[in-house]
Automatic annotation (TrEMBL), chains A, B:
PANTHER family: NAD-CAPPED RNA HYDROLASE NUDT12, NUDIX HYDROLASE, NUDC SUBFAMILY. Pfam families: NUDIX, Zn_ribbon_NUD. The keyword Lyase does not apply. Residues 149-276 form the Nudix hydrolase domain. Keywords: Hydrolase, Magnesium, Metal-binding, NAD. InterPro entries: NAD-cap_RNA_hydrolase_NudC, NudC-like_C, NUDIX_hydrolase-like_dom_sf, NUDIX_hydrolase_CS, NUDIX_hydrolase_dom, Znr_NADH_PPase. One of its GO terms (molecular function) is NADH pyrophosphatase activity. GO terms for biological process: NAD+ catabolic process; NADP+ catabolic process. Coiled coil: none annotated. It is an enzyme of class 3 (hydrolase). Belongs to the Nudix hydrolase family. NudC subfamily. This is NAD(+) diphosphatase. One of its GO terms (cellular component) is cytosol.
Amino acid sequence: MTPAGFTGSRLDRADAWRGDPERFAALLADPAARLLRLDGLDPLLEADGTLGWAPLPADPTPLAFLGMLDGAPRFAALGAVPPATRRTRGLEAALALMPPAEAATYAAARSLIDWHARHGFCANCSAVTAAIRAGWARSCPDCGAEHYPRTDPVVIMLAEHGTGDDARVLVGRQASWPPNRYSALAGFVEVGESIEEAVARELFEEAGVRAGDVRFVASQPWPFPSQLMIACIATVDDARLTLDANEIESALWVDRAGIAGALAESEGAPFLAPPPYAIAHTLFERWLAGA
Amino acid sequence: MTPAGFTGSRLDRADAWRGDPERFAALLADPAARLLRLDGLDPLLEADGTLGWAPLPADPTPLAFLGMLDGAPRFAALGAVPPATRRTRGLEAALALMPPAEAATYAAARSLIDWHARHGFCANCSAVTAAIRAGWARSCPDCGAEHYPRTDPVVIMLAEHGTGDDARVLVGRQASWPPNRYSALAGFVEVGESIEEAVARELFEEAGVRAGDVRFVASQPWPFPSQLMIACIATVDDARLTLDANEIESALWVDRAGIAGALAESEGAPFLAPPPYAIAHTLFERWLAGA
């Protein structure tokens, strides 16, 4: 089974060390310590598609301790970055090259850097905050509030109608997507609802279908900027669609042959599938495999 | 199967209406509109344990549109609330009385109110922000950033060793808990990791056990202040424990009879189980039922 994109990092986060300033200082002073090489928020890769690492900078840029890798402490620089959370063309190319485990290490660093760049002030009292816990939180000197990086859960799901050879799943597209790109429907989990409830709410709102049983398939982090993608399948009894025109431009029920064709990028496939590092791709694969 | 606590609200969030200020004004002007009755962040219940609702206030307190219930628009007041996110004794008593569907409606309101109370300033630029989208976001007049309520995913999991009648699951306790209370282990999902990876990381950090397959069981919102609890079971091959003394005071492997005894509060049960509205309770029930 192909692992979900952005999973499988070889990094040991060693998060128990984050609260120990002496340990943090020792990690920073370690001659083996390395800094993740970035261009803004985009990765600078080695020729083999792995992440680039450099010696630590001499200037006192605040650094976040990503964890230990191959016996060496690994850091990311927390500084001014462009506010773009969208994927650049260079990044798209890099993601196609990077082994998933490297992309996973990159994802953690990118989300963390981006969060610091956009959360320099205390939301509770407006004071300037400072990085604490080896770069994994920020603390307010005025009101004492501590702020932690956001991880926003998103459900991404296939409605499934029928069983066995008659089974079909629902894919939809947004007007802004590339021509003929379709994917699983998705939406943020809100406060006060479960994953199962968010799946049912989004399927009904976007496509007018009523979810029965909801089953979990897989999850992945999505670092644009910091979602947790939770992939599910929901059985539906009635396949009639009522699309929310603000969200979904069109939607299709697709059978196993159609999904297999889309994943294989076959001529005559009913749609263009999302890239392998997107969990919608994993969700299609797992559905074909019986999930 | 008992539903997970804080799920099953009868409220229709009607979230497609949130972006329409004219619709919001009409909902506020509806004579049937009602305000959730609270004492600080605690619910004021009717005699039958259901939530109390009052006519809308005459003063211009900012209100959040919770959704539609029994044909009437429902609101929560966004105002100064005590910063306590802990459960009061009064709340504990209320939670024991409330039907789960009522507790679910309350959970959404509580998390939303609490988030507004602690996020009045722009984390990006420090300006005073204002509620938008019918109370489901805040907008910064200076830098234009939009801020959405936090939903922080937490994994809560049972390590499972052995199969069939020999199966046992791992429960642990924190030093601050009531005497003999044990529960599933838990921890926040971090940026750049999947649910499955967070389960494995937390089990290894807290108990020194290595997770094999991870299976999802159920989820719930937890409104103290706004977690998404994701309950899983992870198989482990080696039952030897290495406890993180900072997190776990003691841990036990418990068989099916022990878990059943704890849920039934039997004399001689190996531990005191968490209350029914906690998903650890649901996780124990589902494990006994074969999950």
